[in-house]
Design goal:
about 170 residues, 5 strands
């Protein structure tokens, strides 16, 4: 229910039994940092001169934990592997990128989505740029990670906790 300017009318939560939260709701990123980074290029220089196009394998994961009251660490894990058609590794990049965040006026029911969907969306452009830079500096064309659906990753994690599917998403 909205009025003409698109805003919810005063007391909109009262009809549904919800308790409105005062003030703006948002995620504050207090710091972001590389927690761990590994790039292995075992076959260079021969690996850089492969005649056939290699196979790129990507996997993502997102986790979060509390380190102080209302302070969370959100960790985005990325693994990028480039393999020959014979299965030999050309390179492997593993990145753990993290942020210390505060949630301001976020309802308890929305904390999981704020930490495992919205915060990774905010971190993703930095991770994408770092992966492209490291793979390019490794002698390969830069790997630009595809846009990633963190909501789907959360859905898969929830299904896995119910015993239905794996939590990490491979692209």
């Amino acid at each position: 229910m909205t009025d003409n300017d698109g805003k919810a009318p005063m007391g909109a939560g009262a009809a549904t039994g919800e308790t409105p939260v005062a003030g703006p709701r948002h995620i504050a990123i207090n710091a972001q940092y590389v927690k761990d980074l590994s790039f292995e290029n075992p076959g260079a220089p021969a690996a850089l001169l492969q005649p056939q196009p290699p196979e790129l394998q990507l996997s993502f994961d997102a986790n979060a934990g509390t380190f102080a009251p209302n302070q969370y660490e959100v960790i985005l894990g990325v693994r990028v592997m480039l393999r020959t058609t014979k299965g030999d590794n050309l390179f492997m990049l593993e990145l753990t990128y993290a942020a210390a965040v505060s949630l301001i006026n976020v309802e308890p029911a929305n904390v999981t989505e704020a930490l495992l969907v919205e915060t990774p969306r905010l971190l993703f452009p930095f991770v994408r740029a770092l992966v492209a830079e490291v793979t390019g500096d490794g002698g390969y064309p830069p790997v630009y990670l595809p846009i990633f659906d963190f909501k789907e990753l959360l859905r898969r994690r929830q299904a896995a906790s119910a015993g239905q599917a794996p939590a990490a998403q491979t692209v």
